[in-house]
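Design request, tokens follow.
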């Protein structure tokens, strides 16, 4: 994300920016939170900046590491017309950024019995008919902080291509930003969850590796390791977590 030079009242020259440091020597920049100017560390995330400014975040925060999707936020940069979107825990502040609280996105979740649905277009038609209102504007794709091809998975849903919806939406964190910006009021991530459930129930191939691992769990092969983990303190557990092998 790049900052746009402004020429507005909010803009500050480089020398002014360099002059502003806090007691710990951290460079400070000015951001606007609900219209009020605050000086915050230049390296802060939006979430960190809001807290540094003295606000307590009582909803819209969870993992703080870009996984849970709870912290969807919108902002503007000086001199830039666009309403930008991001995860507050992952997006760094920029000079003159304007931040505002957003109300929750009304997103009605369809209630269904997966056993009574088939993995085809009629399940989408029945449970998420709004998908067919898509005008292919691409706003959802541009809004997605995960960089997902949201419009493409919506199009796949319209064709009943459940496997492609599952594949393209796999890394969705259900932040809701695509829904927030969609002019057709489509609930993309909820529809994608339905597609993933349909895929899991009807289309996925059996995995011998998974079956083997489940059997090992059931036989108690990992009981000693679980006991070790349960006995660990928070810090040691956190260290162990980040040192793990991950794909
Ligand atoms: S697809 Fe939508 S809900 Fe999922 S991560 Fe992207 S913007 Fe968020
Ligand atoms: S924002 Fe809505 S209407 Fe536009 S492409 Fe995405 S799903 Fe379709
Ligand atoms: S707090 Fe979990 S993704 Fe930001």
């Amino acid at each position: 994300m790049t900052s746009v030079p402004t020429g507005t009242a909010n803009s500050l020259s480089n020398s002014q920016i360099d002059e502003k440091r806090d007691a710990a020597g951290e460079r400070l920049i000015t951001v606007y939170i609900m219209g009020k100017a605050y000086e915050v560390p230049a390296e802060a995330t939006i979430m960190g900046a809001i807290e540094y400014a003295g606000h307590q975040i009582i909803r819209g925060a969870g993992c703080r590491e870009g996984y849970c999707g709870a912290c969807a936020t919108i902002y503007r940069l000086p001199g830039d017309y666009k309403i930008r979107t991001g995860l507050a825990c992952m997006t760094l502040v920029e000079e003159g950024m304007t931040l505002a609280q957003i109300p929750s996105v009304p997103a009605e979740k369809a209630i269904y019995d997966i056993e009574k649905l088939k993995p085809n277009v009629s399940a989408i038609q029945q449970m998420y008919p709004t998908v067919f209102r898509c005008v292919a504007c691409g706003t959802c794709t541009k809004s997605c902080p995960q960089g997902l091809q949201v419009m493409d998975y919506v199009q796949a849903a319209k064709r009943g291509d459940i496997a492609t919806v599952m594949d393209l939406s796999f890394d969705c964190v259900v932040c809701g930003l695509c829904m927030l910006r969609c002019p057709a009021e489509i609930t993309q991530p909820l529809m994608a969850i339905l597609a993933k459930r349909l895929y899991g129930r009807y289309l996925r191939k059996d995995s011998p590796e998974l079956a083997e691992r489940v059997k090992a769990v059931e036989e108690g092969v990992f009981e000693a390791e679980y006991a070790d983990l349960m006995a660990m303190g928070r810090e040691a557990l956190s260290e162990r977590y980040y040192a793990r092998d991950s794909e």
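Comment from the thread starter after seeing the answer: thanks! The chain is about 35% helix and 10% strand.
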